[in-house]
Design goal:
CATH class of the largest domain: Alpha Beta
Distance between the termini: 46 Å
CATH superfamily of the largest domain: P-loop containing nucleotide triphosphate hydrolases
Amino acid sequence: MGMDAFIKSTSKPNLRNKPLNRKLYRFEEIIGDSQLMKQMKELAARIAASNSTVLLTGESGTGKELFAQAIHGLSSRKNDPFVAVNCTAIPEELFESEVFGYEAGAFSGAKKEGKPGKIELAHNGTLFLDEISELPYPAQGKLLRVIQEREVERLGGTGSKNVDFRIVAATNRDLKALVQEGKFRQDLFFRLYVFELKIPSLRKRKQDILPLAHHFIHEFNKKFSQSVKYISPELKEWLLAYEWPGNVRELKAVIERGMNIVEGHTLTMECLLISPDFESAGMRSEPIELVKLLSLEEAVANAEISAIKNALKHSGGDRTKAAQILNIHLASLYRKIAKYNLK
């Protein structure tokens, strides 16, 4: 359904089986009036008019695919196909046949008439490559050739077909780090790294949390035949204090849980604490434990400690490498290790 703002829904749609002319999301449908989101939508709208490649980066659940759809909708290609490929959803052994297509008899089980790949289907339109960090290494080289030559050759084929498409790619991983680790081709990275749009996490735009929550309440009112109009003050406080590691997708899931349980016109903390399973006597089961509310200072400290420990673990205890991973000066790392009394 459908920039970490959101749109009508944040769960990733299964686009592989949907028609190419389905309704796509527009920028005006993306919920988020915080200054950060306004700037992001304005920048994305300007980039949309270009034909250049766009790389959308950001945490999982921030709405990268929604931005991709909106960019396509403002581009000169808006009346042509928007074809989405989730690079994690296609098994590696099937990836090339799915994306590049195949000719008759290319392999056992191939259709006798062959099959066009996603790239051919995106001709004149936009090819959205989601989770591009997971693109199999051999396919990376083949994709690079397609981008450079604007020609695609099907598996088992002897000739090439001209293709014209725009690439919008998305990742929640650090592609630069993957290049350094030899897991992602540097030449492909530079082809993708023309425009980078960093979609902000929900915790960086907390002004949008309550409007999003009310939006999802309205959505689930219709779905569950509820009549919720309000959010209790206590629940508002918790929604604004929680860090939302799963971003808008997590917020929607939390609201959905409460809307399954709520009675009356107000969504409360109790709605989130009640397990969906009730004992036969009608008694409430044990509450789901919510995240402990932390001060900003405590939350920042916990995040820094976790990040430092992970970086040191990844670097095998090498503090210089850990500082590089964290993108801070070595001296800063030493100060933080001393500050938090880390071993």
